[in-house]
Design a protein that fits this description.
Layout lengths: L5 E6 L6 H11 L3 E8 L2 E2 L19 H9 L3 E7 L6 H6 L31 H17 L4 E5 L10 H4 L21 H11 L11 H28 L4 E6 L5 H5 L10 E4 L11 H11 L6 E5 L6 H13 L4 E7 L4 H12 L2
Helix pairs in contact: 1-2, 4-7, 9-10, 10-11
Bound molecules: zinc ion.
The site of zinc ion has 7 residues, from helix 6.
Amino acid sequence: MRGSFRKACWVHLQGRDARSDVERIARLGFEEVLPNVVAVGGPLYPSRVRPQHPQAGGRDLVGEFVKEAKRRGLRVHAWIVSLCYPNPAFESSHRDWYVVNRLGVSCVDEPPYVPHYKWLCPSRPEVRDNLTDLFLEVADRYEVDGLHFDYIRLPDALLPKALRRKYPGVPLEDVAKPEFDYCYCKVCREKFAEEEGVDPVEIPYGSDLYEKWIAWRARQVTETVKHVASRVKRAYPGLEVSAAVFPLSVALRYVFQDWPSWGLDLYHPMLYHEFYEKSVEWISEEAKASAGRGLPVSVGVLADFMKSYSEMEQAFRYALESGARGVTVFAYPLPRPELEEWVAKALAGI
Ligand SMILES: [Zn+2]
């Protein structure tokens, strides 16, 4: 089945030239691209559904790239940043849609970890409908082969290990803290109280009920994915729907992703080993754990973490040997010149 192994990369569009980028991507040996059509900050085209990214300034950064990519024979999956949406215009008009932590503080006022961590709450029906409209708008506007969820989760209740030292107040152990614990908005609290008879702010950490509360929140993410995907499939049965997800071993507890239950066509687990203080071999373990369960995955590899050609080659080979359907590289443009050479050579070998 070697011939059917998929070779893809996520692609940033801001400040780029579509024609030369597509040419270069194709020459590196990629057959599929995931251009970032909705970025953190908003759509990179004039959208009727969400205010545009402030830096896009009314322009369409997507159209030409998609046209060039199709002309070059690449498959195109629109990369859509879904729930993380820092956008001053939207924050002020839809303040209630944003997540609230256990202390009752909205992420609009005090975003956790980084200033752009402003997230929409997946429990809200309006958020599910808005995201659906966004997906359908992208499918209407562009000749794409698929639509791709990213940032489809709550903010990290637990950060990947290597990132914990970077932010003040973050415990180094797997311990939840109220200021990083979302979502306790009105809708989440009321819905959970209705179903379980208890206000989640009252639930002690470490209790059985808290486990239930984790699962409940993961279910809100799952329901959002299913809501959007089912409507996309109804309107565009031929489109592939996929998602960028956290590694299976941490997805549920870190970011409330129970992604094996989402029912999508393909998952791209982001096996970015250094974030987890792991070596390249860990990519093999995680890839096997997902593919071994029969989950359709394309292994997400962060190119910049590769220290040599041999590491790059290993990562791609681990993906191939794990039973995964492909490899997805994060991200074009590659941040170091030698990475292009390594990627091209390693892709040619699988
Ligand atoms: Zn909420």
